[in-house]
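Lab channel / #folding
Pinned by the channel admin:
"Please post every new chain as: sequence first, then the structure tokens as a reply. Keep commentary short and put observations after the output so the thread stays searchable."

First post following the new format, from NK:
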Amino acid sequence: MIDTLPKDKKIVLFDGVCNLCNGFVDKIISHDKKDVFRFASLQSEIGVAIQEHLQLDTSQLDSVILYVPGKEVYYHKSSAAFRILNEFGGAWKLLQVFRILPKFINDFGYNIIAKYRYKWFGQKDTCRMPTAEERARFLG
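Reply from TO:
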């Protein structure tokens, strides 16, 4: 299953029932003019397979993961968010200034949001279903 992933795309794994995470995916799709990203929920079959391939704990659904299959590298938490936002270009690149902070500081803020994301933003009963226009961008 991992062998069939597109090597020329960056894959965003996200919590499919989290409203904040789904909003982030919507934001990525709206800014992804160069068609850089593909998406899969952490809970999906392909999402679990990617996490197992990367030897990650599949019970931890509190982090966005950016996987680059062509390079066999991944980023999670604040590192993934910053790298995704960097692809947006324009004023979004200004957020990269926060990367000068130690990762543990950026991840501290990320972890607080992740911990309370359901309380603050709510959650769905089931994973996000892509629209017809979005279907080609979602794996699995």
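NK: The domain at 2-126 is CATH 3.40.30 (Glutaredoxin).
TO: also worth noting, Residues 103-121 form the longest helix (19 residues).
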